[in-house]
Amino acid sequence: MKINIPKTIQLSQGAGGRMMEILIEKVIAKPLKMTKFEDAGIIQKSKIIKNNLAITTDGCSVRPMFYPGGDIGSLSVYATINDLAMMGAKPLAMTFGLFAQEGLDLKILKKVVKKMGKACEIGHCPIITGDTKVLERDKMEGILINTAGVGVIQSLTSDYGAKPGDKIIVSGTMGDHGLSLIAYRFNFKTSLKSDGAPLWDIVEKMLKIGGVHSLKDPTRGGFVPNANEIARKSNVCFYVYENKIPIKKEARALAEILGIDPLQTACEGKFIMACDSKKADKLLTSIKKSKYGKEATIIGEVREFPKKRVILETLIGGKKILEAPIGEQYPRIC
Amino acid sequence: MKINIPKTIQLSQGAGGRMMEILIEKVIAKPLKMTKFEDAGIIQKSKIIKNNLAITTDGCSVRPMFYPGGDIGSLSVYATINDLAMMGAKPLAMTFGLFAQEGLDLKILKKVVKKMGKACEIGHCPIITGDTKVLERDKMEGILINTAGVGVIQSLTSDYGAKPGDKIIVSGTMGDHGLSLIAYRFNFKTSLKSDGAPLWDIVEKMLKIGGVHSLKDPTRGGFVPNANEIARKSNVCFYVYENKIPIKKEARALAEILGIDPLQTACEGKFIMACDSKKADKLLTSIKKSKYGKEATIIGEVREFPKKRVILETLIGGKKILEAPIGEQYPRIC
User: Fold this and answer.
1) Nearest CA to CA, how far is A117 from chain B (Å)?
2) Reported ipTM
3) Are B279 and B209 in contact (CB under 8 A)?
């Protein structure tokens, strides 16, 4: 389907779907001469630099700024740690760019920064420099945070790396972050919490086992667009089984009430992996040992055809194409 | 003087003066366990990483977004390149974090990104990854850009490195960026232009000559707070001569009309350097050969006393302490 770029910027262009991809490809990447789009950019080793590095950045505008299981501060830290981890890069250090609104309560800023400090500790990656801008009240609202990070690539795990025959693993239940935020906003009483968590420690152990081909954290847009991205870039089919994909009961119930697809709702501490089938069980065991991977599951396999597609085998054995959404899912969460 | 932190965030806390420093030291750096504040953070080489790296970030909110001699896009690129250069680090690559307002004219975004691409070319440092967020109309206005960059330290040039006996050099006229922006906003007809420029190429040549002790680009707040920062951190006196400091005639005239100090107005393509006096002439010659350093001048010397002070010897031979401003200079430009 041909998608035209609208003449004014739309919310949907920041929502993780095809609209965003097209904006980035056509309007942003081309003038910047960027050719590959992954969770992070790669700096190849050379005469000047003796290691392969990954760098990444993440803008964080989540509202409310504090919610069950998380907050804008820890989210901004984990987002960058995880983007590096998804490339097989050990996070070395981060930067912190803050836009704050004039008149903001100092307590809020203090709380956010404290949460960031704690998240850096948990994620074993320090913030070592930053920049602060204060904007007039009419120019912005609250706090916007941009983190960036640099990591040393231990073993490159690329969106382009999935191979037919690979097993597909998710590291836990899908949709927790997005659904918990929606529940909180709507004042639904649930036990759902954001799953925000740093993933490098799990990834590091997996890289030692080997066989990790592709890694992606299904943040904006959740499982569906992110699985599609790997399938498209690796030129393969992601074939997954509905009865295998872990979704919390409460998440499923809430999603049903609201008419939201939990597979199209953001996670912030999970990954999708395509890995060598021979290593899959060992990798799964390793993930399950981690605090953040207890519900990890093999959910399907990579096939050759149909290329660039994510196919869901439903509970009753039917087949459904899970297409990347064009724009955004409502309600909006970040 | 004791300065208390106000209970709500003030514009002055983002303006480059003492108010900002205190906010950063007390509220931001402490919970993040940051101990040193320079243009960039340093990652020491270790078993994991074989080079000393510098990383930095810069938030860019300049209004208007396009102005004589520059724009928000190129500014965001040069800011990060220069922060790395000021640490003696060769820029390797950058990230680009964009917050854009829903409803923004696509043409504006296109123009900004094009300018960024051009600036990357001129500055010899690519943007290799990015993140885009679109915010509702009532949450922000226009475009905010956060760049971050990583560089390899060739020879560390630190704010803490100035030594008594050093010569002080500025690479060109002071206050051009800020004053040109103010003129443009007020619709004054002048030939002033922003001096936005990438500085690594000049720095690289200087590092080969040697004797470069401290480098700082006098961006927010201009010469005065930035010279004070080096003097304070290096525990020395910056002794400078009013008749030596290069200021454009038109800038001086405009500053006088508006009651603005050109030494407290931002530059975006200049540096202040403290260097070995024996190398000063050679370094000066080298700077002057560059397109961006034609008006470089030795403006004074580093002395032992009075420590942590910037002293200006006036045209008539008097002495004046140039104190770092508490808050911000009006009119506000970024």
Assistant:
1) 5
2) 0.93
3) yes
Q: Kindly state the helix (H) or strand (E) to which residue A256 belongs, with its residue range.
A: helix A249-258
Residue B205: helix, strand or coil by DSSP? helix
Mean per-residue pLDDT of chain B: 94
Of the listed ranges A248-262, B12-26, B232-246, the one predicted with least confidence: B12-26
Neighbour-count burial of B188, counting CB atoms closer than 10 A to its CB (0-12 exposed, 13-18 middle, 19+ buried): middle
Q: Which of B43, B96, B129 sits opposite A40 (nearest CB)?
A: B129
Instruction: Write the pLDDT tens digit of every residue in A71-108.
Output: 999 999 999 999 999 999 999 999 999 999 999 999 99
Of A272, A280, A263, A268, nearest in space to A314 by CA: A263
What pLDDT digit, counting tens, does each position of A131-149 carry?
999 999 989 999 999 999 9
| Minimum Cα–Cα distance from B93: chain A residue | A43
Q: What angle do CA A110, A112, A114 make, to 5 degrees?
A: 70
* C-alpha distances in Å from residue A111, one per residue of A86, A118, B31, B210, B296: 28, 11, 10, 45, 45
What's residue A304's pLDDT?
98
Q: Do B132 and A104 touch (CB under 8 A)?
A: no
Mean pLDDT of B313-326: 93
A23 touches chain B (CB under 8 A): yes
Rounded Cα–Cα distance for residues B60 and B74 (Å):
10
The closest CB to that of B93, out of A7, A37, A43, belongs to A43
Report yes or no: B138 at the A interface, CB cutoff 8 Å: yes
User: Chain A within 8 Å of B173 (Cβ-Cβ)?
Assistant: no
* CA proximity to B53, closest of A47, A130, A52, A150: A150
Whether the model clears a pTM of 0.90, i.e. scores above it, the answer is yes
Alpha-carbon separation of residue B191 from A286, B80, B181 (angstroms):
65, 27, 11
**Residue A316 carries which side chain, given as an amino acid letter?**
I
3-state secondary structure (DSSP) of residue B172: coil
Judging by DSSP bridges, how do beta strands A66-67 and A167-170 pair with one another?
A: unpaired
CB contact B106 to A (< 8 Å): yes
Has residue A155 got a pLDDT over 80? yes
Is the distance from CB of A6 to CB of A12 less than 8 angstroms? no
pLDDT tens digits, residue range A6-45?
999 998 888 777 888 888 888 998 999 988 777 789 999 9
- Domains of chain A are 36-153 (3.30.1330.10), 167-321 (3.90.650.10)
Check CB contact of B92 with chain A, cutoff 8 Å. Answer: yes
The three-class DSSP label of residue B59 is: strand
Give the model's pLDDT for residue B238: 98
